[in-house]
Write a structure and sequence with these properties.
alpha/beta; about 10% strand
Length: about 400
């Protein structure tokens, strides 16, 4: 408290102003930032990308360089590499956000019907209103049916949370999971750098485990046990393991046996599994087997392992990175924890365009049900999709393995 009078031991106002001028420091500076912020690194958008942008600007200004083209390989971003968006997805979004288009012949009948269905099943047709923290039930129902069809096991609606992309879900999950620096998150090496960044931001400890390059980047129980033991010696207690399957960046795909080994390891060590499955649509040699399916079908007591599964519209056959749509499905999670997760989701709102993209991903047009124009096939030998309505919305194969 300052005053113009020096009573009760208070500092005179003019004197206080002088002291403030002399001692004032910035509230936000490099010195005042938390160590977790300064130590966090997101390699995907790090110094290499910054230097590339610098060179690109030089190229635009006409400066001669030793190369003619830039290829953006720092991040999975299909559209920036020339893959056009799937027309049906964009038409459904357009008609949903601009209902006048539902009466227009400028977009396909199927897209107009899908948009009309959304509007009729949301309170007062207000698709752009604030949704529940978990997202509008109509979109979550599509995720529920998709998971149940994929795995052959029930998926309660209250275990599904729509997210603003997979990263949003990962960040929310690590927020409730990490409480102190001794809380460890087991991460694969090599890995998607977002997990490292978000673990550090949340003041947790990274516990790396190493994939076997000589055996097609396979994951072994021995590698997991070694990593876990090293963490314990360092007084870090692993609480969860991240498994990226299919793996980013190696493209390796876990066999069912490998998934079972991970599940058994997590039961023995009391770990939550975070299954990053955003590339599950990109398989071209084998059928995808989810962690949820394996846990549901493995023998007791291993079927009690806790699981959080993540999927996104940014990868797969859609590549809609900028729409920010994804979901988390929880399995074997304490209902009270789901209430707390819902609580931290309530402070924000999942975006409607991302939710629509998720619904279309989980509920694509089907042959014999929808018009041929929206389910015509696309060649497996090319990544470039046609720009008209004749697109395949069910699967596009994208080779990931080194061979």
């Amino acid at each position: 408290v300052v005053s113009t009078q020096s009573t009760w031991g208070m500092i005179p106002l003019e004197e206080a102003k002088d002291a403030k001028r002399e001692e004032r420091k910035r509230v936000l500076s490099e010195d005042t930032l938390g160590s977790n912020i300064k130590n966090a690194k997101y390699a995907i958008r790090g110094p290499v990308l910054k230097h590339a942008r610098f060179l690109m600007e030089k190229k635009k200004l006409g400066e001669s360089l030793k190369f003619d083209k830039f290829h953006r390989l720092n991040i999975g971003n299909p559209h920036i590499l020339g893959q056009p968006p799937i027309t049906f997805v964009r038409e459904v979004i357009a008609a949903s956000l601009c209902p006048k288009l539902i009466d227009s012949d400028s977009i396909s009948k199927d897209a107009r019907e899908r948009a009309s269905y959304y509007i009729k099943n949301v309170e007062k047709g207000a698709l752009a209103a604030y949704s529940d923290g978990a997202g509008f039930p109509i979109f979550r129902q599509a995720v529920k049916k998709y998971i149940e069809a994929r795995d052959g096991h029930p998926c309660p609606l209250d275990t599904i949370f729509l997210m603003n992309g997979a990263t949003d879900g990962i960040e929310a999950l690590l927020t409730i999971l990490i409480d102190q620096e001794s809380d460890g998150i087991m991460l694969p090496v090599p890995e998607y750098p977002g997990y490292t960044f978000l673990t550090v931001i949340n003041k947790g400890s990274i516990v790396p485990y190493y994939l076997n390059e000589e055996k097609e980047w396979s994951l072994t129980r021995e590698a997991l046990e070694e990593s876990y033991s090293i963490a314990i010696v360092a007084k870090v207690i692993p609480k969860a393991i991240v498994v990226i399957n299919p793996n980013n960046p190696t493209g390796s795909v876990l066999s069912r046996k490998a998934i079972e080994d991970v599940v058994k390891f997590c039961y023995d060590r009391n770990l939550l599994i975070i299954a990053d499955q955003v590339y599950q649509e990109n398989l071209y040699e084998e059928d995808f087997v989810s962690f949820k399916k394996v846990i549901c079908e493995i023998d007791s007591p291993y079927n009690e392992v806790e699981l959080a599964s993540i999927h996104s519209v940014s990868k797969g056959f859609m590549g809609e990175c900028g729409l920010r749509g994804g979901y988390i499905e929880f399995h074997n999670i304490d209902p009270d924890v789901l209430l707390h997760f819902d609580k931290i989701r309530d402070i924000g709102c999942v975006n409607v365009t991302g939710c629509i993209a998720v619904e279309v991903m989980c509920n694509p047009p089907k042959k014999g049900v929808n018009s041929p124009e929206v389910v015509a096939p696309v060649s497996y030998t090319h990544l470039t999709l046609p720009t008209n309505r004749e697109v395949q919305i069910s699967v596009v194969a994208v080779p990931l393995k080194k061979k």
